[in-house]
Amino acid sequence: MTIILDGKLCANKIIENLRTQTVKLDKKPNLVVIQVGNNPASKIYVKNKQKKAEYIGYNSYIIELPSSVSEDNILEQIYMLNDNPEVNAILVQLPLPENINQQKITEAIDPIKDVDCFTSYNFGWLALGYNPYVLPCTPKGILRLLDEYSIVLEGKNIIVIGRSNIVGKPLSLLLQQRNATVTMAHSRTENLKDISSLMDIVISAIGMPHFITSQYIKDGAIVIDVGINRTEEGLKGDVKFDEVKDKTSYITPVPGGVGPMTIAMLMENTMQLYNIQKNLIL
Length: 282
Ligand code: NAD
What we know:
Bound molecules: nicotinamide-adenine-dinucleotide
Structural class: alpha/beta
Largest sheet: 6 strands, parallel
């Protein structure tokens, strides 16, 4: 029997819990999202994040900048947010327009306000197995969802497909810290199907609709689909869900799997940074 890993349900529990905590606070946590340019998908993500933040009771602001904005102007905005004691959490929505140096921008965020673990300070701590201020939202959300269903990671053979700095790379490190044996695959991996079909858990974060077919999956495997691909037929994951589902023991749907967990973790990280900063002031 296949169990659907219900990210929406799990995320809603987290959101309700944060809402209850926030009602009791005199001063509300404050999240600022910087969005540069007109990427339509980014705009939807940012709006959804703000809606959720407002529902919880946070103060939430979007700084919208045109794609023609200079790097210096973005940096100025970040320095102002870093210095503003009212701001607890800063997120720069990626991707940035091609003419903007992403490294320069994300590195400018004060690590104590770095809500998605973008800075080398926080990522470095994560890589070394220490505690960064917060963990990156999507990998943290995937681990939380697996934990919610009591899925044991220790000793499991896990393939993470996709090595981006925000999903695949940190996720592979966190899984190793949970004592899984991790294979990190990417666009130059040879014989991906052969390797993937041996794995206990397959996690796909590549951004290609329905790329993962049943040939990539062994019987009884667990499948986590991170992909969000906007196609003419609507939102599709990386995994060909209908074909793969019956072969798996657990699988995430798209939508309703990893996506809501990412937003819930962004909200949880905002609260976590708020609490860290409050304790420093006391
Ligand atoms: P990215 O777009 O930066 O990189 C894609 C990765 O996939 C690269 O490492 C590349 O090597 C690998 N790849 C590409 N083609 C491949 C192939 N044929 N075989 C094996 N590997 C291949 O990655 P990203 O920003 O992590 O995004 C990946 C997907 O996840 C996108 O669809 C994105 O929208 C989605 N995403 C979803 C969430 C969520 O909350 N659900 C969060 C972040 C990203």
